[in-house]
Write the structure tokens for this entry.
Amino acid sequence: MKIEVRGLTKQFGLVQAVSGVSFTVKEGELLGLLGPSGSGKTTVLRLIAGLETPSGGEIYIDGTRVNDLSVQDRNIGFVFQHYALFKHLTVFENIAFGLKIKKWKPADIEQRVAELLRLMSLNALENRYPHQLSGGQRQRVAIARSLAPRPSVLLLDEPFGAVDAKVRQELREWLIRLHDRLNVTSLFVTHDQEEAMEVSGRIIVFSKGKLEQIGSPAEVYEEPATEFVARFIGAMNILEGQVMNGVVKIGSLQFPASDICDHVRVQVGFRPYYVKVSEDPQRYRQPATLRHIYFLGVAYRLEIETEEGLILRSRMNKEEFRQYSFEVGQPVSFAVTHFRFLPQDGMSFPSSSASSQLDAGPLTP
Amino acid sequence: MMRRLLIGSVWSYFALLLIGPILYLAVQSFDEGIAAYWREVTKPEALHGFALTFEITAIVLAVNLSFGSITALVLVRQQFAGRTILSGLIDLPFSVSPVIAGFMLILLFGPETILGTFFGTLGVKVLFAMPAMVLATLFATFPFVVRELTPLLQTIGTDAEEAARTLGANEWQVFLKVTLPMLKWGFVYGATLTVARAIGEFGAVLVVSGNILLVTQTATLHIYQSYVDFNYVGANAVALTLLAVSFAILTVLELAKAKAAATLV
């Protein structure tokens, strides 16, 4: 089922939780709603579900306007962060709840529940009560329960927020496999960008009730459309400067900006792995001091301080790190090989030169 | 050493305040033999007292369970002006002496008042009859069910109810299939406290009932009457019986609680 949201707004008293959000969810898509707390992502989800009424705007599910349709009649499945299982009912009864409400025949209910128990690997647990299950099992029951009445849309509100990291990873993979198999249009809310990127086909980034960007994980990561998205997704070094004679000079760093007019204040962003660092002070052009080394498992993060006191982050993989023998406090040299100018509110940027490459060698003065 | 001192003092406290008096009560009840005990407990005045107490308790329980749950739901789930004040008022019976409560009812329903004459014309006797006694006992017991349900409702939250709605349940179904079952123990505890308090109600009922023998004399009033008439065996016998009933109710509750405790986690 396709979902379309147009100009959606929601106010709680004086608080504007959602402002003018519009997007379309394709049939069978798995879409992630990503953003920090208070960004409005959960409110948007609940508006689509019918658990909240919009202050303005329209919601269409499969072409039908559902603004005035109650949550009971929208045929959606909803999974809550804290499971919301019926504590006084067994696993079987929990999953069968929606089917009993819809007055399915007992034999059909048996069959459907058995099907879901198998699908979610919950066999042999059907007579247990929620308090006898682990966090991961409880969430799988919650998902099974929401899928039982064959909803046209599946909505998940931070579904893996209440379980520990290992289980979260397993559940993520569950969701992906489940979605591949069932192909139900699904929207899920998360504040974890890694999760959003791993699970979603497309991501919508929210901030302060507004839609910042919608795109594939790669698009959102490589080509952030706004400053907020650039800062929120992945780590980013961001420096501010002014364009003079077609170049932005920040300290001893120079960033060519031939497409931008002089005197414009810009923000330059570059990812940590585009900051090359070496022990050899002659290897790269810029001098700095190594302030901190972080071990990240798959890579190392280095924090360096430039002569002007700017702190930059660099990321290098283990093989590269082991070529050197870095020590905190050591003088190093660095270079920035890729950067982009970040679009700012109210400014238009030429779309062509969104990111530029820099020579790692000495620049012509 | 300190530990033994503490445990010892707790036991002494209980012995002095509770166990001692109860044992004395039991001994005194059988002071003139079992036959005397039985005679006192089965004489018409006593039996009428028991029946009246039972009747009032049953009515009060039914009213408190229904209105108490509605009050709790409104208090927790609705936002309205004066909510904090209402919440504070719920605890009023704990700070007002039952005698004063009884007196308030006299003032409200007395023969010269609006309400008194209104009911008088309808032929309904409020004071010195059942209605006033029920009202007096209601005043003393209404916090219990509300106070048991309110924190429970807050802890449970609305998630499960919302989940039920997403699965197609209408408001009635949500209430019956999800809200009520989750509140089960709140009702049980609230009912137990209500019954215990209603059985023991004395001051307010004494004032509004007029203590009319074989008409408005509850079990507790009968105990008082017997004591005033120097019938100590009678007083102790009925008191012991009431105590045994309360104790039995509490024991049943504890057993049920022990059996079902795990399922609430």
